[in-house]
Design a protein that fits this description.
The chain is mainly α. The protein has eight helices and two strands; from the N terminus they run H-E-H-H-H-E-H-H-H-H. The chain has a two-stranded parallel sheet. 15% of the residues are buried.
Length: 165
Amino acid sequence: YPWRHTPEIQLSEFNLTEIEAMLGSYTKVLFVRDPFQRLISTFMQGMGSSPSFSSFVQDVLDSGQHSASVAWKPLVSLCHPCLIQYDYVVMFGFLRQELGHLLQRAGLPVDSFLPEFTDTQVRWTYSWLSEQMFRELSLQQKKQLSHFYRWDLAAFPFSSSFLSD
């Protein structure tokens, strides 16, 4: 079947009454991914035009948070977890375990929807990639990244150990 593309709809397109009705009646699920994994993934997918990870990170930092791409913009500014009471927060890296629980709560068959990968493999791969790629960064870039994602690091249990020397 050909993929159908529906335009992205944002809450800001609705009035306050509609927003309150939706947020009060929908089951709200937030999928979160470590911001540094998102950076690595974006770079590896070639979404930036930079020749090295270090120059890509510098481009991200230079762009600032307000004009940042959705691919690397801090989650807190995208999903507003302090303003919206999410019913579930599903973390990438614990996806299989958490999705199973979520599907079970929704009364759906668990095994038929879960991806084939194991969370342990995903966590190990990104841990290794993070160590390798973040070695390229200067101490200044690491400090700037820590500041850039400070609210994500405060709101969610992400590791930032590879940002320190």
